[in-house]
Structure formats: structure tokens, C-alpha cells
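Quick question, first post here. What does this chain look like in 3D?
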Amino acid sequence: MRIWIVVASAAAGVAALALPSTADQKGVDTFTCKDVMRSGDTDRDTTIAFLHGFLLAKAGGSKIDVEAMSKQTDSFVERCLDNPAEKAIDALAAVKK
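> Answer (accepted):
Ran it through. C-alpha cells below.
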């Protein structure tokens, strides 16, 4: 069940990013941990799933390990709570190592 939530969240995030918008667009590297943690539950989950996918694609990967991703997400949340000014993408990259 959890895998479907992650996949659905990631798909929703990608779909939202693909839609043209008149709002200012922000780069992935502009979001801080504080930005992500202050988001609503659904937005936060979608953002974290998107960041996982972004790093996976950047590394040339196409397969996910849901159990590892779940543990990395927990570590990411803890790191962000401790370091709210850190860039979210950097925080996730650090916990994925």
C-alpha cells in the first residue's frame, strides 16, 4: 500500500510541475528544509517523493527500493528538523549516502 502512495505522490508532483503556471517557478535547489517541513502533509509527502525521484534520475537510476526510501525519508525529516536552513535537496542527498 505504501508504495502506491509514494508512486501516486511522485506522479502528482511531476504532473504539477509539468503544468504551465503563471506563478514564479522555483528551482529544486531553492527549497529549504523549513519550506518542506512547513508544507501541509500531502504537499510535504509529494515534495519528498519528488526529491527522491529527482536524485534517482540525476544518478541515472530507474529502480526504487521502497524500504530504503522510507528509512531515508525518516532520516531526512529528522535532519530537516535539526537544520531548517539547509537546502532540502542537499539534506536528502546527505541521508542517501
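The chain has one domain: 2-15+28-96.
Residues 14-20 have pLDDT under 50 and may be disordered.
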